Amino acid sequence: MQTRQRNQVISAVSGVLGFILIAFILLRLYSQTRFLKYENLTDGYSIDYPSGWTYTEDTNNTSAIFLSPKEYEFDLFQENVNIVIQDLSKNPKSLKDYTQLAIVQLQAVFQQNINIVESSEIFWGGNPSHRLVFTAKGDQFDLKFMNIWTIEGNRAYQFTYAATLPKYNDYLKKVKKMANSFNIR
Predict the structure, then answer these.
(1) Are residues 1 and 61 in the same domain?
(2) Less Cβ crowding at N or C end of the chain, within 10 Å?
(3) Beta-bridge partner residues of 57
(4) 12 and 39 share a domain?
């Protein structure tokens, strides 16, 4: 009789531990796929970002920078999304002119180290926009970028995703969700 009771206790404890393990795994998965809302009232936009990412504001001429978590202690490049707002009131531009200028500037920065993969007109944030995907050789890494920009009023809104070439697709689903959530107020 004691063997039977002991087996029942072991089964009950195993069931509870199994339930706790499954709950922990589901909670972990949920926290990795959950998005938080970021609102910038000064620059007039909002965007959703992955809950495990961090952000900083008003750094290096950006409105906001969203950083992926470090994958290991000495991770030297955190994949990121930058939002840049440019005031065009003194030098208004059409989307076509802005696009031409942006491509020329990127080619000047990366020189012959840039390879444009895609350049297309899209709708983003409810506005006619342009998407540019390109690879470039950086000082330490081969990088891949996705830039999206639009013009509303006297402002250009730029969304830039930057990743090391091997990691670009790993974050792309989350980044596309971020881009699709972008809303100009």
Answers:
(1) no
(2) N
(3) 64
(4) no
Name, in order, each residue with C-beta under 8 angstroms of 183's C-beta and a sequence gap of 6 or more: 45, 46, 47, 125, 126
CATH number at residue 140: 3.40.1000.10
Among 185, 184, 170, which residue's Cα sits nearest to residue 50? 170
18 pLDDT tier (thresholds 50, 70, 90)? low
Beta strands in the chain (DSSP E): 35-40, 45-50, 54-59, 62-67, 80-87, 114-124, 127-137, 142-152, 155-164, 183-184
Per-residue pLDDT tens over the stretch 131-174: 999 999 888 899 999 999 999 999 999 999 999 999 999 999 99
Q: What is the pLDDT of residue 121?
A: 97
Give the structural domain span for 113: 34-184
Sheet holding 127-137, edge to edge: 54-59, 62-67, 80-87, 155-164, 142-152, 127-137, 114-124
Domain count for the chain: 2
pTM: 0.81
Residues 39 and 72 in one domain: yes
Q: Are 164 and 141 a contacting pair, CB within 8 Å?
A: yes
Q: Is there a single domain that holds both residue 178 and residue 161?
A: yes
119 vs 133, 166, 185, CA distance in Å?
7, 21, 26
Could you give the 3-state DSSP secondary structure of residue 9? helix
